[in-house]
Amino acid sequence: MNTGSQIGAGKKYTSMIGVAAVGIFIVAVYGFIKGRILPLTDDGLLMFKTMLISIILEAVPFLLLGILVSAVIQVYVPNAWIEKIIPKNPIAGVLVASLLGIVFPVCECGLIPVVRRLIAKGMPVYAAITFIIAGPIVNPVVYAATYAAFRNRPDIVWSRMGLAVAASALVGLVIWKVVKYNPLKRNAQSAPACSFGEHKEETASRKRYGKGKKLADSMSHAAGEFFEMGKYLMIGSLLTAFMQAFISRADLLAIGQGEASSHLFMMGFAYVLSLCSTSDAFVASSFLGTFSAGSIVTFLVFGPMLDLKGTLMLLSAFKVRFVFFLSVVIAFVVLAGALLTERLFL
Q1: How far is CA 204 from CA 58, 78, 88, 201, in A?
Q2: pLDDT per residue rounded down to tens, the chain (346 residues)
């Protein structure tokens, strides 16, 4: 099979997975609320429009800032710098990798191609995976966005950051102990193009543009990424505004205050929406008072670590059995950690 047909088959495969996942989620939600959707009224429409506009206006500046920072780092920071920072000791390596996003706040779309190259060059898998799942959360832009969305609930802000570090470190240690094989696909030596933002190879960028035009390269990258991630923000904002305006408050409370149902619903919601971590806090904040604080933290931590978009990208770089194992570990660790966090701190 030639390269063109492989790309075409890959796009068809990912589209089928995406449609199936969204369909399953919608059917599951419909099962919860069947017959309980509120009628379209002027008050409901006004609430819908107000909620939609407020979420978008609050989220867009942080989304843009995060993409700009990520794009500049993607172009200007050599991959070798990241590799050199990781200690050889597994425990120290996992801890450093879980905090690496503070220094290198690269978006999740850019992380997977970068980390794939680093693994192929000898970077430990456990450290790379820790960086992939912690980096989109543990960085200054995401902290600022979360703080802006939850000004009156700093406990949620710190719970998000603390759980992200703890959960990613624990997942990394599990990978270190269990995964004793090479999880990369056979074509690991050639990093895949990112279908969600089209991240360019560092060396190709230098050859094509030269040192004098790196800024133009980073801005071009940022523009494409903004429009790509903006689509997910719009979809998430529309669904959130609809749920708040037209679904019975009693039904939302029944789901949102359940000890298990609230966390499971928010995990599914985060997985399907595939929101950028710089804007998901504004969607989550609209559920304050309806969903438990612990389930909101689950949404804020699980989504950036594992969502539909991220799963498809992982499958392009890693073997299916490894992605399945990683997904199960992340889901279990985040759910258990969020329940514990809710009991102790929220």
Answers
A1: 36, 13, 30, 5
A2: 444 444 444 444 445 555 545 554 554 455 545 545 555 666 777 777 887 787 787 777 777 776 776 676 666 766 667 777 888 899 999 999 999 888 877 666 667 777 777 777 778 899 989 998 998 899 898 999 999 999 999 999 999 999 999 999 999 999 999 998 889 887 544 444 444 344 444 444 444 445 556 667 667 766 776 776 677 677 777 777 777 677 766 777 777 788 888 999 899 888 888 788 888 899 899 888 889 999 999 999 999 999 878 887 788 788 999 999 999 999 999 999 999 999 998 8
Q: How many CB atoms are located within 10 Å of the residue 31 CB?
A: 8
Let me know the angle formed at the C-alpha of 115 by 109 and 117, rounded to the nearest 5 degrees.
115
Model confidence, pTM: 0.76
**Residue 122 in contact with residue 156, Cβ under 8 Å?**
no
Can you tell me whether residue 58 is helix, strand or coil?
Answer: helix
